[in-house]
From TrEMBL, chain A:
Keywords: Magnesium, Prenyltransferase, Repeat, Transferase. SUPFAM superfamilies: Protein prenylyltransferase. Residues 1-12 have a biased composition (Basic and acidic residues). Its cofactor is Mg(2+). PANTHER family: PROTEIN FARNESYLTRANSFERASE ALPHA SUBUNIT/RAB GERANYLGERANYL TRANSFERASE ALPHA SUBUNIT, PROTEIN FARNESYLTRANSFERASE_GERANYLGERANYLTRANSFERASE TYPE-1 SUBUNIT ALPHA. Residues 1-32 are annotated as: Disordered. It comes from Vitis vinifera (Grape). Pfam families: PPTA. It comes from the Eukaryota. This is Protein farnesyltransferase/geranylgeranyltransferase type-1 subunit alpha.
UniProtKB/TrEMBL annotation, chain B:
It catalyses: geranylgeranyl diphosphate + L-cysteinyl-[protein] = S-geranylgeranyl-L-cysteinyl-[protein] + diphosphate. This is Geranylgeranyl transferase type-2 subunit beta. Binds 1 zinc ion per subunit. It holds the Pfam family Prenyltrans. It comes from Vitis vinifera (Grape). It comes from the Eukaryota.
Length: 362, 317
């Protein structure tokens, strides 16, 4: 359902199909806090919206006016935000709010009424997904849109699955770490399914950016929850192989090191005993570049009883600088010393680790 | 002087905040109009931390706050706006700053908040149903300040938060969602306020949090994301609550926050040389308070209010 009739540019007050309706102006009360100067056409649209809303008229023309209000509202803040030099991207609290709710006093009600009309008209909800897609372009952080989308998807059930996955994929192609998109995507997978290609999708995102922590998080989500993959233990071997490859490519990447540990969850002994884990540490240490996470992983292994071969001792020795205590009696304390030196920002953390070493650590 | 930590432009920031409070026609205030309640909390708490809360018209603010209350008991972002749990907490916090919680019908507000708890213990933000651990924190923080935590099912609330714990020790907005410093702050605070911090792996989470500090001394919110002054609050408060704040380099963080000031016009921005706003001004100053920058009041990491305000609520009856 197009939000505006083909070529329909006339204001609502001039359209014959609205001639029987008396528009209802906004009641700001006696002391409006901020008399926002909305554009004239938006004011008029909202006046007509109010008329059908208060009359509870759930008709096709009501549906059209909600679409107009939504589009104009989107227009209001898309235009204004482009004038602004604000950077809300990292701001958790404002993500939903500022970008999505500039005219919040009306927006939530408009979407809600639209849902009532869609139900009353028994509307084609696949079309509705298309409508939302158009509105969402440029508003990837608007909570109302995500909520409405979720409502439609729930009604359509598994029919909506591929559209929902496509929709979030599109948002993520513009911002691969968009927290709302990921949250919605996880909801879709759990409620509607569509797990089949998710691991491949994660793989693709990681090919685009191996540092994408959201993609690593999603990967974990998939391997633990997908009904097609057999669960964490079944996937462990192939995932360890994959992760080791990622680590070798970029040893300074925090995510795969944490992911590797996560593959063993509560089974620390299996993690310690997996030769691939200790071996990737040794490989990175021997290359002598970006060794911080390799060192901290080795430290964790040692704290869990890992027995290092001479190769490990030599590799850590090679990383020591002359000013360090060369006589550190065991490997674990040596690793802590090296880390305190290499990662001075966190010198207190590494000193604490050294202090806390279990008595029998190698 | 070589190596000296820079200055906090207290006067400039005070003037900046007062100007934001007053002006209603400039662009920033129009954009922020619907979340003015949050803005009031950020601005006024900053003033209090700087010892300048007496520079505002208390009566005018209190009466405006109460005008924002909806018949449901919740508060909207501004007069005539729909209620939401976000603005309800800010309203309670603003009233607490002025020691005016007594103007509230405490049961009415508490019932609104308690009514947002779901079967699984989670909280919705408003009647439209969005679920997020942010709202768990907000509900618990508000009800704790109002001393009405008994109106919710605390055990279920805690269980829901714990279900959002990830293998890196962090927390996301919903179960399985990526760990994010903002969400971590919310979850850790909520657990702290309900005596449930034993659910947190403090060593593991502490390490994740201190890894947020990047070369410049600034903090980011997730691995490989850009740093932002607001994480000075979220990461640091979380570290304080789990007794691991000494794991970050405090001097470097102080320097970063001070570099984010607009020394000409006042206010603090997300990173150096960006546009300032009252949100980042609050988090920058509150972060400095946590870092014991001289001249600032102590701030409570869980309630996000000056410590003397919190003490007044709990200890002076």
């Amino acid at each position: 359902m197009e939000w505006k009739e083909e070529g329909e540019e006339r204001p609502l007050s001039q359209r014959p199909e609205w001639s029987d309706v008396t528009p209802v102006p906004q009641d700001d009360g006696p002391n409006p806090v901020v008399p926002i100067a909305y554009k004239d056409d938006f004011t008029e649209t909202m006046d007509y919206f109010r008329a059908v809303y208060f009359a509870d008229e759930r008709s096709l023309r009501s549906l059209h006016v909600t679409a107009e209000a939504i589009h104009m509202n989107a227009g209001n803040y898309t235009v204004t935000l482009s004038n602004l030099d604000f950077d809300f991207a990292e701001n958790l609290f404002l993500e939903n709010e500022a970008i999505g709710r500039i005219a919040s006093r009306v927006e939530a009600v408009v979407w809600h009424f639209r849902r009532l009309i869609l139900e009353a008209l028994n509307a084609d909800l696949h079309e509705e997904l298309n409508f939302i897609k158009k509105v969402a372009n440029g508003n990837p952080k608007n909570y109302q849109i995500w909520h409405h989308r979720r409502w439609v998807a729930e009604k359509l059930g598994s029919d909506a699955t591929s559209k929902e996955l496509d929709f979030t994929k599109k948002i993520l192609s513009l911002d691969a770490k968009n927290y709302h998109a990921w949250s919605h995507r996880q909801w879709v997978l759990q409620e509607l399914g569509g797990w089949e290609d998710e691991l491949d999708y994660c793989k693709q995102l990681l090919e685009d950016d191996i540092f994408n922590n959201s993609a690593w998080n999603q990967r974990y989500f998939v391997i633990t929850k997908s009904p097609f993959l057999g669960g964490l233990e079944a996937m462990r071997e192939s995932e360890v192989n994959y992760t080791v490859g990622a680590i070798i490519a970029k040893p300074e990447n925090e995510s795969p090191w944490r992911y590797l540990r996560g593959l063993y969850k509560d089974d620390a002994q299996s993690w310690v005993n997996d030769p691939q884990v200790s071996s990737v540490c040794l490989t990175v240490l021997s290359a002598k570049r970006n060794t911080v996470f390799a060192l901290s992983t080795l430290l964790d292994l040692l704290c869990h009883g890992f027995q290092p071969s001479q190769d490990f001792i030599n590799a850590v020795d090679a990383l020591k600088t002359p000013d360090l205590d060369q006589s550190d009696s065991n490997l674990a304390t040596a690793v802590c010393s090296v880390l305190g030196h290499m990662d001075p920002m966190r010198v207190n953390y590494w000193a604490w680790r050294k202090n806390k070493l279990p008595a029998q650590t190698a | 002087m070589e190596g000296q930590i820079g200055d906090l432009e207290v006067e400039k920031h005070v003037q900046y905040i007062l100007s934001v409070e007053k002006r209603k026609d400039n662009f920033e205030s129009v954009v922020m109009e619907h979340l003015r309640m949050n803005g009031a909390y950020w601005g006024l708490t900053t003033l209090d931390l700087l010892g300048k809360l007496d520079m505002v018209d208390e009566d005018e603010i209190i009466s405006w706050v109460m005008e924002c209350q909806h018949e449901s008991g919740g508060f909207g972002g501004n007069v005539g706006h729909d209620p939401h749990i976000l603005y309800t907490l800010s309203a309670v916090q603003v009233l607490a700053l002025f020691d005016k919680l007594n103007v509230l019908d405490i049961d009415k507000v508490s019932n609104y908040i308690a009514g947002l708890q779901n079967e699984d213990g989670s909280f919705s933000g408003d009647m439209w149903g969005e679920i997020d651990t942010r709202f768990s924190y907000i509900a618990i923080c508000s009800l704790s300040l109002l001393q009405r935590l008994d109106k919710i099912n605390v055990e279920k609330a805690v269980n829901y938060i714990v279900s959002c714990k990830n293998l890196d020790g962090g927390f996301g907005c919903t179960p399985g969602a990526e760990s994010h410093a903002g969400q971590i702050f919310c979850c850790v605070s909520a657990l702290a306020l309900t005596g449930s911090l034993h659910h947190v792996d403090k060593d593991l989470l502490g390490w994740w949090l201190c890894e947020r500090q990047v070369k410049s001394g600034a903090l980011n919110g997730r691995p490989e994301k850009l740093p932002d002054v607001c994480y000075s609050w979220w990461v640091l408060s979380s570290l304080i609550m789990i007794d691991r704040a000494h794991w970050i380099d405090k001097e470097k963080l102080i320097k970063f926050i001070l570099d984010c000031q607009d020394k000409e016009n006042g206010g603090i921005s997300d990173r150096p040389d960006d546009a300032v706003d009252v949100f980042h001004t609050y988090f920058g100053v509150a972060g400095l308070a946590h870092l014991e920058y001289p001249g600032l009041k102590a701030v409570d990491p869980a309630y996000a209010l000056p410590v003397d305000v919190v003490n007044r609520i709990f200890f002076s009856r």
